[in-house]
Amino acid sequence: MRETPRSQGTAGDAEPVLPQPRPGCALAHTTGASGSGSPHRSDGRPPQTPRGARHTDRHGGPGTTPPVPGPPTVHSPSAPRAPFSAPLAPVALITPLALIALLALCTWQVAAHGPLRTYDERLGRAIAGSALPSPVAGFLADLGNTAVAVPVLAVALGWAAWCARRAEEPRWWLPPLAAAVAMAAVPALVVPYKALIDRPGPPGPLAGETGFFPSGHAATAAVAYGAAALLLHPLLRPRLRRPLLAAVAVLNLAVAAGLVRRGYHWPLDTVASWCLSGLLLWTVLRVSRSSHNGP
């Protein structure tokens, strides 16, 4: 005997029936689908429990049921940072102190006819008799003339000032002015120094004359080309900055070799000039950095 299915007309007579999947139910769970109020309900009604009302986590990623909250944010006061220039202050003083010490040593040995002066004169005679051709040595020595070095610095001054002015830097004029003052300070320092030490020159075209310590040509080349490199350094691409500084160092070594080879100076004359020039260039560098960093 076949059993007749019971009518489901009223809710009280209905037996509990498990929900059956229906076509199109997946659309109800899709975000933005018609009638979908939340990703957990397909009838558009608000969820019945507080747990079901939760949304995705605070990072915007897809949450779980229940969603896992993100890591708690801990707000801790940041430690005060030391000024940038504070740890660099002792290091920045090493360079000028070392230059002053080396200059004092050379001056003392030359003025007192010490053993370092004896070795210096032997080295000078050996370099003067080296295989470096005299015309090449003369050309290298002439690179320390003011007629050659100062125009190079003037071009660098104009270019650096124009670029800084175009970039609307507040103190665009300060680095070029510092370089110009350093160049003007070369004869003001070298000429009295020569008269004070009054060292005789090496055998050569200027034999018998005095006043060769320190070398004016070496100081002119070091300050002119060095200051030009410092002014152009921030304007160049990073890969060109180190080659520029290396080229300036090699150029000054070449000028010193030409001066000694031609018999214009002893080696210590050029070393003392580099010490004086290094102090001037260190000042230019510090002034340039202060102008870029602001007051």
TrEMBL record:
Segments for region (Disordered): 1-81
Protein keywords: Membrane, Transmembrane, Transmembrane helix
Start-end of Pro residues biased regions: 64-74
Record carries keyword Transmembrane helix: yes
Gene3D superfamilies: Phosphatidic acid phosphatase type 2/haloperoxidase (1.20.144.10)
Domain Phosphatidic acid phosphatase type 2/haloperoxidase: 180-288
Ranges of compositional bias, category Polar residues: 1-10
Origin: domain of life: Bacteria
Any single Pfam family the record assigns to this protein: PAP2
Transmembrane segments: 88-111, 147-165, 172-191, 211-232, 244-260, 266-285
Protein name: Phosphatase PAP2 family protein
Organism: Streptomyces rugosispiralis
